[in-house]
Amino acid sequence: GKPIVAVVGRPNVGKSTFFNKIAGRRIAIVEDEPGVTRDRIYTEVEWLNHKFTLIDTGGIEPESEEIIPAQMRRQAELAIETANVIVFLVDGREGLISSDREIADMLRKSKKPVLLVLNKVDTKEQSPHYFDFYELGIGDPIEISSALGLGIGDLLDEVVKNF
Ligand code: GDP
Ligand code: MG
User: Fold this and answer.
1) What is the second-level CATH architecture of the domain 4-161?
2) Looking at residue 130, what is its pLDDT?
3) Which of 2, 50, 68, 128 could bond to 61 as cystine, CB 3.0-4.6 Å?
4) C-alpha to C-alpha distance for 109 and 126, rounded to whole angstroms
5) Atom 27 (ligand 1): residue with closest C-alpha?
6) Which of 8, 15, 17, 117 to probe ligand 1 with, by most ligand atoms within 8 A of CB?
7) Which H or E run contains 52?
8) Contact assessment for residue 7 and residue 58, using Cβ atoms and an 8 Å cutoff
């Protein structure tokens, strides 16, 4: 079947905004309140003659924190299991925090190709936190602004290279 690309990351990094930008319409709910995506949400995408399914997920939090209900966490884990490529979104304005590290550990264990994506980089300038993210051991961070639509094409080029 078609490759599956899952968008994962802690709440509020902009997963649903990113998903909607690629879908070209508002399917996923974007909220300032963390953790609003309750189910996995799908859209079909075509890029450079590659067809794939994109999945938005609810945020993943460390198991010790009870912010995200277990069911939502499970949905995200299922998406990771199903995915062929994972887009791991982090917040380029806030910088690296411990939940990013915990998710990175989960993703490394999955052995799936992971693209590390700094979202909310709304200017042409590099995020001041850019180099901190190398600590995650997931390679070169890719900078985008989902809100403004910056860097999305270059990211999709990288996504389809992993099929
Ligand atoms: P999710 O919880 O990861 O799905 O995050 P959402 O897509 O709901 O976005 C959380 C908040 O971040 C919302 O207020 C968005 O408008 C905002 N946001 C998302 N992407 C960007 C971006 O590229 N730049 C800026 N400045 N804000 C963004
Ligand atoms: Mg969301």
Assistant:
1) 3-Layer(aba) Sandwich (3.40)
2) 98
3) 68
4) 29
5) 120
6) 17
7) strand 50-56
8) no
Residue 31 phi, psi (nearest 5) = -140, 145
* 88 CA to centre of own chain: 4
C-beta separation of 115 from 85 below 8 A: yes
Q: Is the pLDDT reported for residue 38 higher than 60? A: no
Residue 125, CB half-sphere, CA atoms under 13 Å: how many? 4
Domain ranges of the chain: 4-161
- CA angle (141, 61, 27) in 5-degree steps: 75
83-120 pLDDT tens trace: 999 999 999 999 999 989 988 988 999 999 999 999 99
- Contact between residue 60 and residue 88 where contact means Cβ atoms under 8 Å apart: no
What's the ipTM? Answer: 0.99
